[in-house]
Write the structure tokens for this entry.
Amino acid sequence: MNLDRLRTFRKVIELESFSRAAEELFLSQPAVSLQIRHLERELGVVLIDRHAARAVATPAGTALLTFAEQVAKDNAQLQRQLAALQNKHAFVSIGCSATSAKQFVPRIISVVSQLAPEVHVRVITLPPDEAVAKVLRGELDFALTTEGFLSNRLKAEQILTARLFIVGQPANPLARRDKVTPAEVARYPFALLPSPWSAQTRFLEWASNQGVEIRVAIELSSYDGLKEAVRNGLALAVIAETAIIGDVQRGDLAIIRTVGLPIEYPIFLAHRVGPLTSHARAVKTAAMRMGAANRPTLEIA
């Protein structure tokens, strides 16, 4: 059971409000609602009475609240014990998406190992808004995010520029042509990442600028899921370059070329405002060097 979801549930019940819980946890209200829905689906029960004027626990929710409070106490004790065991090591934590954890963080760690081999990098994979919230609360040192300004309590510096591509099955008629029109692209259903990931927003903005409307048929919370939807012929998808390089080179996926694509977007390294420890500075330096060495890989001509 996800500890962040339990913490969110406890906060909603404590404040009797989804919006106030979101504000205190530095999350969006939809993100809070999504976490509660995930808990309810996992447990197969309704946890909060949504028809009441306030967010009130159902009987099942009350039982979960007792459990969640004990879990929070046990987790705090575990963290203290682990901190005591690890005090001989320097740990720096980064929160990011699963794709960033696969594609960018290993490169950062490689540079860290050269600059400061005594530093251990701990990677936590989670949605971007949750990673930022953890940085604000001091639970993480850094977050990788696509937003340059999130809070006056955070400093975000761009470390690289990433790209989004439309991909389809190699047998798709659009994939066999050098370039297609946005109108032709819009005839197909799409599989996209949901909010709070920014890829869907950026793609729909592109569609609006091209004067076409995109039909979002599937929302999946990972690029691996989107790629499976494409492979099974269910939809086209919009996926970051770093997540499809191998698939395109192997011929498992094909790039759909059209006006205004790929969509370029920045990736920032965010941390709390204020001085960094020497170990955190080493990680930040490594991230900046990794970004400076990063170059586009897929040909788009």
Remarks:
- The chain has three domains: 3-84, 88-159+266-293, 161-264.
- The two ends are 46 Å apart (CA to CA).
- The mean pLDDT is 89.
